[in-house]
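Risk register update: the risk of archive-format incompatibility is retired. Evidence:
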Amino acid sequence: MKQPELGRKITELRKEKGLTQEELVDRCNISVRTLQRIEAGEVTPRSYTVRTILAALDYDLSRITDDDAARKSFSGWLKDTFLIDIDPDRSGTFIIKQLNIAWLLGLVYFILGFLESAAEYFRMEDDRMIFSIPVYISIKVAVLVSFFFFQRGFIVVGHMFRNYLLKIMSYVLIFGVFLIIAYDIASLFYESVEREYILGAQALTFGGILILYGISLIKLHRSFGNVPVIAGIFEIAAAFFFLTIILSFIGYIMLIPAELLEIVILFKAVEIIKSKQPVNGAMTT
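Archived output:
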């Protein structure tokens, strides 16, 4: 454990024992000033000093080591899951694997979208469920998981081709879809704001997001040709329909070809990366 966390941990343990700094130093044979500086995070003590202090507090050093390892493990999992920091040394097989997963789950997301749309249409227009609640929730969760991995592909593409707007907007879309699905599921069990207002806010929000997302796709044209340009135009057109709110249903129709083209982009990215080794973990657009 590094400073200042170590100092805070020692302070916490000392107070749990009901000891003053003077009482603790009497047990471990160090000066009060040294303990004060350690607790304040001003110095990093030698391992022997740390063991002595922890022994005086009846605390096992291995517990701190285990806690630190757990935090590092979680941090590593978080980075790998959300591809926050892609290691250039893994830019071969690892990248291709992520892209293959992305376009395959993109197809799954595309198919599930029709089931989700039908469920939402009847829930909104007729105020009835065409699926049982467990099936509805399962569809929603499957949509979220498949969309997450689908967009991970564009996080990879954004990283490899230095299109940081695409990378950022993919994170935004993942977060936005998570909020929407969480609301849809929660609204089954709790009274909430009228769904019309929520759907209106959703249309306006995603209208703005999709304009930027469409622009980020168009920026891939130098490496991918016209496919991302057409996909970007569909996304921007859909965004403008969403912004009208009333014509949002046309926006959803416009997203159908956009999503198919985006699957093609991910598949094409695999072929490009296979044929061209990245320079310093990135490719230029």
